[in-house]
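ok new one. same drill as before - structure tokens go in, u give me an amino acid for every spot. 344 of them this time. try not to just spam alanines like last time pls lmao
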């Protein structure tokens, strides 16, 4: 008889894993709607393909492991991975790019280590990094908001039809990183989709993820320690190294907080109870590390956005963080300096 393992993630919330996953999916709805407003059916295609591929691969791998497929699928964890990865990928990504990303996420990010609760890396970010490193051009070219017809988009996704120049543009982070001569005022005048809460799709999408994250905090799906620490560290780093609005500027704190995948990372990625630290103090340290690394890679690294790389690097540090931040065992006093084990 098969006895389903009762492993992590552990939580103080009395809801089942399935209910928690449903809440996370519900919290992504504002970002999905905002993305759909700017990019049409692009986000829906990404998410749909990710879910179809993820469920198919999950069922196949579980059957190879001779485990009940229905039990593995009903917890909803693979759906959450698919939704988060689908929203992180550029809209209208080619089907094969989506397949590679979600394939690595499910196979190498989850089942290679034993399945749910045993993966040291965040599966969605692992899949994202694989395609980002392997196909940088496809991963850094986003369609211009509200410019792509549905028929042209479907042809690009399923038939590989190349984008017209008028359909694609670099992200604001990539534009800033490759700027060497213009002031920020001149740069954003030439960039048609920039500005603080004007026509910049990235800002609105980040606000939508922030709204969803606050909902999850209200429902106590996770604690505030990791997201607050990450956003605080990123804001402080960008404030300390903010060198004005000249051509060498790395961007203001507001720019970094509401660009790229900042809010997605803060509320939906680093709060993963499996690959993150486990104690409240550990989660705070984990979030600080992610925030510092995000700014370092954005400002001086080779990639404009750094959420995925930063999360994976801190996933490696999570066991060490847990070791040094373990809470005191109930009923035990804190050891004193010079304590002799033989003393009473």
């Amino acid at each position: 008889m098969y006895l389903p393992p009762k492993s992590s993630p552990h939580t103080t919330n009395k809801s089942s894993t399935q209910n928690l996953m449903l809440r996370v999916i519900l919290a992504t709805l504002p970002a999905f709607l905002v993305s759909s407003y700017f990019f049409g059916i692009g986000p829906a295609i990404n998410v749909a393909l990710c879910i179809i591929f993820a469920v198919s691969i999950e069922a196949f791998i579980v059957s190879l492991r001779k485990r009940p497929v229905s039990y593995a699928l009903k917890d909803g964890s693979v759906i959450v991975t698919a939704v988060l990865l689908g929203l992180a990928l550029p809209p209208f990504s080619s089907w094969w790019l989506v397949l590679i990303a979600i394939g690595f996420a499910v196979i190498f990010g989850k089942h290679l280590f034993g399945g749910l609760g045993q993966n040291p890396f965040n599966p969605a970010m692992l899949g994202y990094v694989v395609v980002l490193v392997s196909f940088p051009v496809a991963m850094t070219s986003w369609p211009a908001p509200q410019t792509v017809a549905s028929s042209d988009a479907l042809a690009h996704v399923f038939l590989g039809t190349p984008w017209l120049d008028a359909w694609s543009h670099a992200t604001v982070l990539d534009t800033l990183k490759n700027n060497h001569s213009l002031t920020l005022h001149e740069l954003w005048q030439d960039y048609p989709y920039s500005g603080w809460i004007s026509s910049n799709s990235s800002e609105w999408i980040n606000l939508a993820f922030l709204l969803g994250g606050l909902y999850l905090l209200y429902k106590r799906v996770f604690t505030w320690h990791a997201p607050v620490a990450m956003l605080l560290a990123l804001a402080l780093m960008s404030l300390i190294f903010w060198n004005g609005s000249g051509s060498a500027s790395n961007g203001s704190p507001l720019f970094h907080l509401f660009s790229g995948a900042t809010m997605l990372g803060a509320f939906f990625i680093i709060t993963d109870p499996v690959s993150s630290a486990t104690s409240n103090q550990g989660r705070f340290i984990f979030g600080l590390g992610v925030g510092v690394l995000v700014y370092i890679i954005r400002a001086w690294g080779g990639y404009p956005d750094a959420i995925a790389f930063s999360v994976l690097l801190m996933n490696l540090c999570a066991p060490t963080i847990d070791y040094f931040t373990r809470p005191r065992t109930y009923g035990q006093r804190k050891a004193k300096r010079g304590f002799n084990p033989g003393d009473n």
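The chain has 17 helices and two strands. and btw The chain has two domains: 7-170, 171-324.
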